[in-house]
Amino acid sequence: MSTVVETHDHGHHGPAKGLSRWLFTTNHKDIGTLYLWFSFIMLFIGGAMAMVIRAELFQPGLQIVQPEFFNQMTTNHGLIMVFGVIMPAFVGLANWMLPMQIGAPDMALPRLNNLSFWLLPMAFGILLSTLFMPEGGPNFGWTFYAPLSTTYAPNTVNFFIFSVHVMGVSSILGSINIITTIFNMRAPGMTLMKMPLFVWSWLITAYLLIAVMPVLAGVVTMMLMDINFGTSFFNAAGGGDPVLFQHVFWFFGHPEVYIMILPAFGIVSHIIETFSRKPIFGYSSMVYAMASIAILSFVVWAHHMFTVGMPLAGELFFMYSTMLIAIPTGVKVFNWVATMFRGSITFETPMLFSIAFVALFTIGGFSGLMLAIVPADFQYHDTYFVVAHFHYVLVPGALFGIIAGAYYWLPKWTGNMYDETLGKLHFWLTFISVNVTFFPMHFVGLAGMPRRYPDYALQFADFNALISVGAFMFGLTQLLFLFIVIKTIRSGKQAKPEVWEGAGELGLEWTLSSPPPYHSFTVQPQVK
Amino acid sequence: MFAFGWLLVPMYDVFCEITGLNGKVTGPSSLSKESLAITEQRELLVQFMTHNNESMPWKFDSEKSQMRVITGNQYEANFVFYNPTNNEMVGQVIPSVSPGRGAEYFHKTECFCFERQVLAAGESIELPVRFIVDPALPKEIGSLSLGYTLFDITDRVQPKEELAKL
Amino acid sequence: MVMPVMFSSHVFSEDSDYNMKVGVTEVSQSIFELHMLIFWICVGIGVIVFSIMFWSLFKYRKSKGAVAADFDDNFWLEIGWTVAATLVLVWMAVPSTQVMVKAYDDAEGEINILITGHQWKWHYEYLEDEVGFFSNLSTSQEQINGEVPKGEFYLREVDEPLVIPTNTRIRFLITGNDVIHSWWVPDFAVKQDAIPGFINTAWTNVPEPGIFRGACTELCGIKHAFMPVVVRAVEREEFDAFIATKVALAEEERMLTSKVWTKEELMERGEGFYATNCSACHQINGKGIPPVFPALDGSQIAMFDSKRHIEILMEGVQGSAMAAFGDSYSEVDIASVITYTRQAWSNGENGDGVIVTPQDIVAYKNRIDL
Fold this sequence. Notes:
heterotrimer; A: mainly alpha; 16 helices; about 65% helix; B: mainly beta; four-stranded antiparallel beta sheet; about 15% helix; about 40% strand; globular
């Protein structure tokens, strides 16, 4: 066989041509691209569902869709954004960047990598097809509480369960790959505490995924048993308990939301460091903070269940543990600000998204802290106040992290600079529309509007109209992003290997050409 | 790993019985030595509520909706069951005690909720709950509400040979 | 620390479109004050952090010649702000715990009300008086469809509110009949999930009379947004009179069931019942939304099979959204709506014209031959 070391581009045996390339690729860059495009398409599909929701909620009354369909929209919007956009986008960024950042030629398990991706279109094909079946798709909320999702679910729930299993397998296999890669393939000299923070964020996230995706698989399997095989996990008649569902689901669900934010923490650290031209403040604290957040995320799950009838001691415990998570998270925010402080700052598009991330994610964190306070939560739970909170941490939180990462690394991936003016336009339109959409949700929630309502009382009308306008604006603006991405791929000013001033010192990826060779780091670099 | 998963079911049952979490104490229970040693008695209100889940057609009522009881003494509350349909049916009553942490202090020495109930078409029966409220019941708990939910489990139950007798 | 809270309580004491209700009970007011305390602390932290951040972004712009420093840690600073954050959390945790302990009070209630969440209405039963009733949304379908203007209490009004006496400790016992619902009255700061097979408790003590409106706050199916909570707090005498009326009505209903009904009487009652309880799915014109909600106009069962017709109303249809109305409504109501649907639209002309009386429903329940 050929020797292990190759020192030149694969001119004559480069990537395959046509469809086969994409179906069978084991190249981390190709697979990263597949994940990213998949998540981008899903963003528009999930976003279209949000547009249906907001169109119906534009005015009180039922104008456009009936509650049956509305419930399918809210459910699938949530499922798609969580499992089809945020998670795959971060995996795509991981695939592209982790090997380059640690000086490795590819992921440790390249064929497993391909499978992990292709499971996703299969899973979502199944899920989305249920919307066209006679009984309609899942309509019980993305949190699918029993018995609404068991005894009272449409027949298509079995497809939903199967789809969730397939997504879970994809995540678990991907995480195994990531951990193996990080532990075994770092360039010599790159100790764990010299790893880039994005790599750290993914190492921790991958452990969380391996720990909790099997729990999700467990809960949907118990659902499957209850629905089809006469068991009573969640059915009081047989001695079971609907609240058991909630405990098991949220034991998965809470770490899941940290899975959806930790990689963004990593990305934003890189970007702020780059554009402040100053090393990230408190590298080790950043690592310990992410690890603490991950560990603490296992002991807070019942803060999603404060009204379920738990004993006082339980409620207090979960209140305290949830409040505790504010400490490592706060430390990270302070560190980002301290990085900017006395830096030399420029405001390219990735930096704009990262600054907005720090400010708006923090606002989401404040509403989270308010939600942690149990007696107050009696007034917030299941209202739009919760919807405001999680959209702040997920949209100007996770999604801005992804977009920031995309702008930051697009020149590396494509070799072309994106159009900075358009990028800034995208940023400002997005920033404004995100706040117009989600900030008033705090108000309607506090004023008493519950969530998952297709229709509402008249005092909520004005804010809902405003929110819908913001949402339409936000949705349309992302078409601009699509345009910018395609334009960058096809043309643009040639990007240097370093791309950003001073970035060469900041990570191995900036030592590679832009775009990098199809197989990079076929010889390991030395890290000092 | 599989064994652990499989054992979770009995472990969960044991855990809930010991802690009385969620108001669930599914089997007969009695006072501990420590409780028996408590001489102080207090009075409290015990309420009974019945509810038929979904479309369960039986008539299911308590004779009395509440009783004032003294801790440490045994009491009996009677409940009426009537199956008005043309078919034999099987019901299961699931108890729930509120407040949840009071569950471990509510000792049922006999209860129709321990077993499935089979009623022939048109049959009616009166069944008791015999209970003692533990003297160790915390002072903050001023009353105990016992909620009984009757479920129709005719479809879930296997051939007649396996049905529990009354 | 006390001043901003008192100030904000005053400023926000009017019901605002922006903020939580202060509410009418001691517990709800404590919760409101706690909410404002936490809110202002968060605002304070935000102001500090954001001003440092925005000032840095302004002052240290490269375009204005800023040159980056190269420090990347400061041990004591980090310890300092970690400790400060912890202390702020303790500052929040103490009043939170106090308010929580107050809200979780388990003492005996003077009046006990069993609240059951159904798809899609609430059932209230006064345990001491053994009388109960359903509480349905009373906003018309025409308002929801936009055919007529929406009333002031659109989606916040019911046919039978829960009536409670003021200055009395009320204990709520909350359960669910089918799926999980959740009973919320913001003015009382009471929210508890209604879980089938389990009983949850909550309590309140309302000092002044008034009408208080809440909502179902756990997704429970298609009419989750259409099962509001309305509570009327009245002086004790009025409450006692209310209960007496209800007890008398229940007795009257028992007698009505045994009287002889004419077809017209049954049709009239049935039409009203149909509009409230059936038209959302089967539509006012009886055409339904097939296949999920079958058409009743022209239905074989409604025209020719009164036995099956009764069975469906009494038992529901397994695996569909058709609930068993038999255990929720009186024999008179069931008989009326069956008679109505057998006569209405084209069914009266084309069908067998069989009417169903309350006695028929009693007979069904006792399985005497129809």
